[in-house]
Amino acid sequence: MSELLEVRNLSKQFSSHRGLFHARRTMYAVNDVSFALPAGRVVGVVGESGCGKSTLARLILRLIEPSDGTVSFDGLALLKQRAGDMRRLRARMQMVFQDPYSAIDPRYTIARAVMEPFQIQGKRFTTAEATATVEELLAMVGLSEQMADSYPHQLSGGQKQRVGIARALALKPALLVLDEPTASLDVSVQAQIIGLLEQLRDELNLTYLFISHDLALVKYFCDEVLVMYMGRIVEAMPSTDVNPRHPYSKTLLDSTFEPDPKQRRNIEALSDEVPSPFDLGSGCAFAARCPSVSARCRNETPILSTPGRSHAVACHHPN
Amino acid sequence: MMLRVDNLGVSIGSVRPLSGVSFNLGKGETVGIVGESGSGKSLTAMSVMGLLPLINGEITSGSINFDGTELTALSEAEYRLLRGGRIGLITQNPMTSLDPLKKIGPQIDVVARLHLGLGKRAARERTVELLGDLRISDPASIYHLYPHQMSGGMKQRIVIAMALAADPDLLIADEPTTALDVTVQAQIIRLLMDLVTDRNLSLLLITHDMSVVAQTCDKVVVMYAGTVVERGTVEAIFDSPHHPYTQALIGCIPRGLVGEMRLQGIDGTVPSVVHYPDGCRFHPRCSRAEDICATIVPELVETQNAAACHFANEET
Amino acid sequence: MIAAISNSGFGRAFSTPLGVIAGGFLILLVVVALFAPWITPFDIALQDLDNRNTAPAWPHLMGTDEFGRDVLSRVIYGARTSLSVSATAIGISVTVGMILGAAAGYFGGMFERAVMTVVDLTWSFPDILIALIFVAILGPGLTSTMFAIAIAYLAQFTRLTRAQIVRLKQETFVEATINLGASPIHIVFRHLLPNALAPVIVVAMLAIGDGIVLEATLGFFGLGAQPPTPSWGAMMSSGTAQLFIAPWVIILPGVAIAITVIAVNLFGDELVRALDIRDRLRGS
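^ inputs. structure came back:
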């Protein structure tokens, strides 16, 4: 199976400016991330706030320029594309954003918002064709064509997110990056949207990169789970066998409660003092909080190794 | 019985967002009120705390009985003695609960001094001890920090400290972990559960997250569109939910893998508070609905769980 | 753009009594100014030396000046001058200011610094001083006046637009549009400027009021519109000599200025209120 997306050693560095009283400090929002996304699969990236998953999404779509590393999309070196080619290429790799409330220009009607992708990519339509396309796209995401003339503020969160999905799919992309698409929605609406995404994936042969803080959701929806912490991927597991070997992944799993009172978790104590991401230096980023920490962990950064073929972990003392 | 809410009804202006809300909370028990947005769960908490006047609301029917005292009959002055004293409140957003211009230590002291009449030094010692109980390392130094110098999880612990400073009997936690990261949430939940056990607290936990309820609660109250649709022990609710909304809500939680279960959403949207449907408020979205549901409001039927559904007694 | 303006709350500004009165007056004023040649009872240049300095009475409802010219007709024509000069100048100022501000806000960096520094320089000069500089260079007349008004308020529009653009740039829908492959031109003209328009329009309205006063001030010193073009300021200036004989010659144009500027400001306030609510509604 060909790799639709291949990411190698991707990094993004941010520095705070040198002030009068402190030296310039740098931090890695994304640090040496590599993974591959085969066509037709769903890969999930899970992590808490500050782990870099949203930055990773934007690096992959080249909405931010990386400091280092390469991104290869369908065989093309993404970072070498010139502005014009890049703009055209964007039609094939789209994103669904976290916040449906601000993802649509409040002055645009839904119809106009849904047709905008075509307008941007220079496709012309007659009025009749445009109306038909809007209807088709809205129907595809489960909205009635009566919404075409509404404004975003007249729609619910779930409906707005469906419009976001329609816009993303208008140009028939191959890759869809979903950045916490249901985080701000009620649980029942989240279920609707996930159901829609499942259906669309089958119908349209899409490949998804699904980013979330919700491990249960990622486990359910994705074929593979990548766990991120402080800019690095610390573990990669197939979702059929989520058996964390990295201490952080284990903590994350233990923190994800089951909807079953007979399966209550035993929550281990963990310091929630996360160290500052600035000037981390060498050594494992989780060392400050890890129950299995050793001297080696503080000095040597663990690399993502591959114990079994499909299960990789970046730890000196995996379980 | 620490808290007994009976047929509570609340109005805000011409709108009646809450009605028919009834549930009990025993001493040392943890009861979870669970519902999505627009369910009225936060409003219920505010009613118990007597904070409705802040949003121009008022209790129009029913009673709230706290350890023998009828809260609906209290004056504001009497309520103020209870609030922060025998009833502690933890709100969702620690950012807004803490005064950004004061150190956190004194903010906690104030509660003890006000309700327990402690002097400055005694209150301070007590606060430091409390911070230690909340598993904050080096509490004596933390005492002097400002809110902006702390992480979200730490701030929430401070808010919990403020709620516990006067040794309350009842703790109301309104979405205490929603704004926090997953691992931090787990730590706070663990802390709350330990506190409940150590201090024999009664905890009213308000959340939208059924998984949190499963992890923590003894009893569950499910709310939808301003009314209670089902309540029961946590085992009974998850094992055999009787109300279609409860069933649907549990079915919305992703479990296992794709293929093992299909995530079922609930069609439609939560009704607006100005336009509650006639009869059963859930009927427009219910797959089990029949004509009777559109006209007659179902009562809470006492089965194994109490479910407000015309078909609650059916085999699920 | 037009849809954006009509959507932007102009209509809602008329929803209160104050909005109706102020807005209604302004509309009336514009109509009167437009149709001046057909409305004025007398030719503005017509001198009637037998009827010099007559008090307001039929047929001269505002009296006559020292040349026997009908004051009412001159005030009406003065409205034409004041409104057109101020509106045109502010119109130019808004256009240039918005484009500069949008570019500065969108591209940032050194370009932004350069633009804002230049613009801030103009802001540090008092309006009158700028006006006098132009008069010194170009000579007195309407051209200098318009340049003066345009430059005097350019800084405000540039700053305001830039601030809006910087804020709007971070909205998710901008990111979404970039992700669809949009060029900066598309983003600035189709998303950023339309959303930034509302507050700028309000400030523009208020600036028109200021512009009218500036034009009148220049006119008072004989540096604005040159005769025979009537100007409220010039009328007041020449009326000072007759202050005790025919006070209406100086008072009535002054009253016209005052009422117009008050109406502009009141309507501007109503606009602010109307747009604010709209924005809040949209956000919910």
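Chain B touches chain A through 47 residues (CB under 8 Å). Chain B is about 35% helix and 20% strand.
thumbs up if we can close this ticket
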